[in-house]
Design goal:
One of its GO terms (molecular function) is phosphatidylglycerol-prolipoprotein diacylglyceryl transferase activity. By secondary structure, the protein is mostly helical. 61% of the residues lie in helices and 5% in strands.
């Protein structure tokens, strides 16, 4: 007998009149807002302009949703195109089914378009938004809880999730809450990336690559626990192979990038402040003008500046009388010594 478990919602949608309010969709929306909020804070800290992250997200989010759905439909095509299935269901995103691999890949394409339009280096933008993206994933995974999906093997552990739905062949019972495991893992990845970025000043896309590698490491073992239908290759689920392949690519990128482009970008957005807070080109121009005005108000300073601009003129002391007296004395002594030598000769 189960002593404790995590209960699943009795339903994943509430109706506000004719308008359906779906828990899955709310989790996705909240995750997007968190990603943009945190990404904006990190972007400004790197020297970027406020609002740039949101402007680029306008491109990245729709691309990500399309890519995530395409990956899910292609890799689980039997759910939509096999006998007895309705292919129209492939467009029902609110019912669940977004592949993170497709979402990140297509979202990166959208972000690249937005970054190009803003004149922003894509690697720097990716580094800024990486922790926010993985936090969005942590929040989005709770949408699977509302839909009673993506759980693991049966268990009687106190933190097991109770499945009550019988839709799509589900068997009621208590199972490993793999959605919860992945959510907690994603929070840990976000903290890891934030710490590593501060400690090692990661740049040129390495913070984003660290997020990808760390997420894939966790996704591999979490995916291994899941019991939902999936394609298998050599005994492993397709997503296991995808996680392994992407993990190796991310690690390779970190190693090569650190060798070829060490350090981090000094300027991440044209016209904005640099990462260390120094003023941009306009600030330097204003500073130079202020210095010129100050010099004009001080006659002595103006005179020194004029002398400095005269070719061949140095900043030697104005009173050279002492030096002249020394030279005259030396000449007189030389004449005297010459006369004495002549007498002796």
């Amino acid at each position: 007998m189960e002593l404790a478990f995590i209960p699943s919602p009795s339903r994943g949608v509430l109706y506000l009149g004719p308008i359906p309010l779906r828990g899955y969709a709310f989790c996705i929306i909240i995750g997007v807002f968190v990603a943009v909020w945190l990404g904006n804070k990190r972007w400004i800290a790197r020297g970027g302009r406020p609002g740039t992250v949101a402007d680029i997200a306008v491109w990245a989010v729709p691309f990500g949703l399309v890519g995530g759905r395409l990956y899910h439909v292609i890799t689980d095509y039997q759910l939509y195109f096999s006998e007895g299935r309705d292919w129209v269901d492939a467009f029902k995103v609110w019912e669940g089914g977004l592949g993170i691999w497709g979402a990140i890949a297509f979202g990166a394409v959208g972000a690249w378009i937005g970054a190009r339009r803003r004149g922003v280096p894509m690697p720097a933008y990716a580094d800024a938004v990486a922790p926010g993206i993985v936090l969005a994933q942590a929040i989005g995974r709770w949408g699977n809880w509302f839909n009673q999906e993506l759980y693991g093997k049966a268990t009687d552990l106190p933190w097991a999730v109770e499945i009550t739905s019988t839709a799509d062949g589900r068997v009621p019972g208590t199972y490993h809450p793999t959605f919860l495991y992945e959510s907690l893992w994603c929070i840990g990845v976000a903290l890891l990336v934030i710490w590593a970025d501060r400690r090692f000043r990661l740049g040129h896309g390495r913070a984003f690559a660290l997020y990808v590698a760390a997420y894939c490491a966790g996704r591999f073992w979490i995916e291994y626990m899941r019991v939902d239908d999936a394609h298998h290759i050599l005994g492993l689920r397709l997503n296991n192979w995808t996680a392994l392949f992407v993990f190796l690519l991310a690690v390779l990128y970190i190693v090569l990038s650190a060798r070829m482009r060490p350090g981090r970008e000094a300027v991440v957005e044209p016209g904005a402040e640099t990462a260390d807070g120094a003023a941009g080109a306009d600030g330097e121009k204003d500073t130079g003008a202020a210095s010129a005005d100050a010099g004009a108000d001080d006659p002595d300073t103006a005179k020194k500046d004029k002398d400095a601009d005269t070719p061949g003129k140095t900043d030697a002391p104005e009173d050279t009388g002492d030096a002249t007296d020394v030279e005259d004395a030396a000449d007189a002594e030389g004449v005297k010594n010459g006369a004495d030598s002549a007498k002796k000769g």
